[in-house]
Amino acid sequence: MRTGTAKKALFRSAFLFLALLPAAAFGDAAETVRVEYVLDGDSLVLDDGREVRLIGINAPEFGRDGAPHQPLAVEARAELARLAHGARVTLELDRELRDRYGRLLAHVRLADGTSIQETMLRRGLAWAIVIPPNLARLKERLAAENEARARQRGVWGRPDYAPVAAEKLTRADTGFRLVRGEIARVGHGRKMIFLDLAPRMALKVPRADWEKYFPGRPEDMVGRRVVARGWVTAHRDRLYLRVQHPSVLTLIE
User: Fold this and answer.
1) Which of 50, 95, 103, 242 is catalytic?
2) What are the residue boundaries of the TNase-like domain, all occurrences included (predicted)?
């Protein structure tokens, strides 16, 4: 994807099946709170001690245990702090209220109604992520990201974040990635569908999510070249990237 032709093809392509995205509504719960401080580019702490993970975005990470920070991690945190530190904001909850770490999941708005998530995406300081069932304002987030991508802002202008060929991934490449490849084979488990991008790397789609959100059969994807985004994990001698919604797949023309 570092070549000009492939890169142009990626940036020309729209999110797969975008027209089918549901117009999910916010839940009734909304709360006005004050932000005590910002942890990184996608999470913050309220003055009552609750930690909030911003729904629908993922910012570059700070290094742990002596590892270097990812490019633009400092800039992303600084921008979120500029927007939210000490501010009164409105939390709008979606269908799933907490993540596996116990953090509150919320859409966050400034006093003037500005979406913090959409602002971070528009400035290229985060990627849009989609984890059902929290799908409210998904179209707006994707539109904000598309603006940054078209203008090569932030992460979209960094070669560090260009999609990596699936066959080049190793166990050292776990974590959030954009991965490209051609779907060569489909495998079926009881609860998972596997779309193989390389001999030892596959997209892993929960069967329930495929049946709910994806049109067509998994086999219809064979031969399609895609870029997938998400967290790469290792299990035994294989790598997997979990995909739960078609909007995290981009077709390469």
Assistant:
1) 103
2) 29-158
Q: Are strands 104-109 and 51-54 parallel, antiparallel or unpaired?
A: parallel
Find the catalytic residue in 61, 75, 147, 182.
61
Domain coverage including residue 167: 163-251
| Residue 61 and residue 112 in one domain | yes
Average pLDDT over residues 124-137: 97
pTM listed for this prediction: 0.89
Task: Show Cβ contacts of residue 97 under 8 Å, excluding neighbours closer than 6 positions.
Answer: 104, 105
* Residue of 4 and 150 predicted with greater confidence: 150
Total number of domains constituting the chain: 2
In-domain check, residue 80: yes
Q: Is 53 a catalytic residue?
A: yes
| The one catalytic residue among 53, 109, 137, 180 | 53
